């Protein structure tokens, strides 16, 4: 799933290519992806793209319509969705069916993009709204972790407001917007913290370390992703991971401090996390919930 750094890079990529261009076609390939019905998608046709923004993991194509009313085409790529840009889109009509194509946006110079979704579990979500906050998931987003509002004091308040595992707090979009499974693993490695550490156990020093790790990891990932074409972002994200998705491989440590321990995994029903015992849990492996159930 693309997270804050990749979604920010996609926003930059689309902004640089679509700004100022007129929308000539919006076609739906998967009606299940469209979560709103008024305004209809074709209300965007004839309008001009004026910006592309990011809200957490959501992308927002802002269009000044021919009637003068601003509209927003907003989408969440979920786990298997992606943006496929083309300088010359196919002229074949979009036909709803079993194709991965969920939505097509064509611009006045023939360029544009397709939203696609692989697999059978369709979770890609597309909204056409007059205001981004009309999308409930955007209206309830938490603080942006790279914004000026995300201070050490703000993080301390969030940690103290509940008692849960820190991994869960980092992934909670209503608390901190844009961090998902992959970057929470990377942040916790950088902070040298267990994903199962309870939030109310954090004192001022541990809070500062976590805050710095959040800023360091996300800032570095945004810088690395910026300027890359959409087609390269997935592979670039995988190559940049130090612990996430690297079960069984040597831990590279952080900040050029070598480790060499083996990356471990904890599996859940539909996801998993990766961590380094030496760097994060005092050398003690965490219980793998899936294996624990099998051994009962």
From TrEMBL:
UniProtKB keywords: DNA damage, DNA repair, DNA-binding, Glycosidase, Hydrolase, Lyase, Metal-binding, Multifunctional enzyme, Zinc, Zinc-finger
UniProt-listed InterPro entries: FPG_cat, FPG_N, H2TH_FPG, Ribosomal_uS13-like_H2TH, Znf_DNA_glyclase/AP_lyase
GO MF annotation list: class I DNA-(apurinic or apyrimidinic site) endonuclease activity; oxidized purine nucleobase lesion DNA N-glycosylase activity
SMART domains: Fapy_DNA_glyco, H2TH
EC number: 3.2.2.23, 4.2.99.18
Limits of the FPG-type domain: 242-281
Record's keyword annotation contains Signal: no
Reaction equations catalysed: Hydrolysis of DNA containing ring-opened 7-methylguanine residues, releasing 2,6-diamino-4-hydroxy-5-(N-methyl)formamidopyrimidine
Domain Formamidopyrimidine-DNA glycosylase catalytic: 2-124
Family to which this protein belongs: Belongs to the FPG family.
Protein name from the UniProt record: Formamidopyrimidine-DNA glycosylase
Organism: Cellulomonas humilata
Lineage: Bacteria, Bacillati, Actinomycetota, Actinomycetes, Micrococcales
């Amino acid at each position: 799933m693309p997270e804050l750094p990749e979604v920010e890079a996609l926003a930059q990529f689309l902004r640089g290519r679509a700004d100022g261009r007129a929308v000539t076609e919006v076609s739906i390939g998967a009606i299940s992806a469209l979560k709103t019905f008024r305004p209809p998608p074709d209300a965007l046709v004839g309008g001009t793209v004026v910006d592309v923004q990011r809200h957490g993991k959501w992308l927002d194509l802002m269009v000044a319509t021919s009637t003068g009313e601003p509209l927003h085409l907003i989408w969440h790529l979920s786990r298997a969705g992606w943006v496929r840009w083309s300088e010359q889109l196919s002229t074949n009509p979009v036909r709803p069916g079993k194709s991965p194509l969920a939505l097509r946006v064509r611009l006045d110079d023939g360029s544009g993009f397709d939203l696609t979704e692989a697999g059978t579990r369709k979770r890609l979500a597309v909204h056409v709204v007059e205001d981004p906050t009309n999308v409930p998931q955007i209206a309830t987003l938490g603080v942006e972790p790279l914004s000026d509002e995300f201070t050490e004091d703000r993080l301390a308040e969030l940690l103290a407001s509940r008692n849960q595992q820190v991994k869960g707090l980092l992934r909670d979009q209503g608390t901190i917007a844009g961090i998902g499974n992959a970057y929470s693993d990377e942040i916790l490695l950088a902070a040298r913290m267990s994903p199962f550490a309870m939030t109310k156990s954090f004192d001022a020093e541990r809070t500062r370390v976590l805050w710095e790790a959040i800023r360091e990891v996300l800032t570095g990932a945004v810088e690395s992703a910026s300027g890359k074409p959409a087609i390269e972002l997935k592979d670039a994200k995988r190559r940049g991971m130090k612990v996430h998705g690297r079960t069984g491989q040597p831990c590279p440590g952080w900040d050029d401090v070598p480790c060499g321990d083996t990356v471990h995994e904890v599996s859940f029903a539909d996801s998993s996390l990766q961590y380094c015992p030496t760097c994060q849990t005092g050398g003690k492996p965490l219980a793998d919930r899936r294996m624990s159930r099998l051994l009962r």
